[in-house]
Amino acid sequence: HPRRHTQETQLREFNLTEIEAMLGSYTKVLFVRDPFQRLIFTFMQAMGSSSSFSSFVQDVLDSGQHNSSVAWKPLVSLCQPCLVQYDYVVMFGFLSQELGHLLRRVGLPVDSLLPEFTDTQVRWTYSWLSEQLFSELSLQQKQKLSHFYRWDLAAFPFSSSFLSG
């Protein structure tokens, strides 16, 4: 798009005409990850700040939707999938299949750009870890998390999420 902007420029900083022109000229790709897995990843990154996963989740719930960190904020509020028509939605855990397809569709060489993925191992590890950490949560925390991420769970096919239930 002709208007110069930096990597930090937010879409909301442009007027509607500029936004429509930009979105129409780009291939829009959205990478999504199960919200519960995003919580686990964030918790693992900041292991020292919370004594347990349960207390970390309580901090997330207490922060509310509007004050939440980008690391665990619901994707629907960050990416606006109802307003932006994404050309591709790539699910974490299926990167090796989906990225190859995406690169071919946009005319890029697949073999030279794709790193080695260990999706099967990653899915198994997150499944095991999710089960362990989910069992630490109270029923009330589980219900509140499901409510906190209700729009993500409705918008994306996270059928195996611990929060979809």
Describe the structure.
This protein has 165 residues and is mainly alpha-helical. It has one domain (11-45, 52-155). The chain contains nine helices and two strands. It has helices at 16-25, 35-45, 53-63, 75-79, 95-105, 110-113, 119-134, 139-148, 150-155; strands at residues 29-32, 88-91. It has a two-stranded parallel ribbon with strand order 1-2. Helix 3 crosses helix 8. The longest helix has 16 residues, at 119-134. It is globular, with a radius of gyration of 18 Å. The mean pLDDT is 81.
Number of helices: 9
Q: What is the total tally of β strands? A: 2
The largest pleated sheet is described as: 2 strands, parallel
Assign a percent range to the helix content.
40-55%
Protein name: Carbohydrate sulfotransferase
Family: Belongs to the sulfotransferase 2 family.
GO molecular function: sulfotransferase activity
Membrane topology: Single-pass type II membrane protein
In a few lines, what is going on in this structure?
51% of the residues lie in helices and 5% in strands.
What secondary-structure arrangement, pairings included, does this model have?
Elements: H1 16-25, E1 29-32, H2 35-45, H3 53-63, H4 75-79, E2 88-91, H5 95-105, H6 110-113, H7 119-134, H8 139-148, H9 150-155
Parallel strand pairs: 1-2
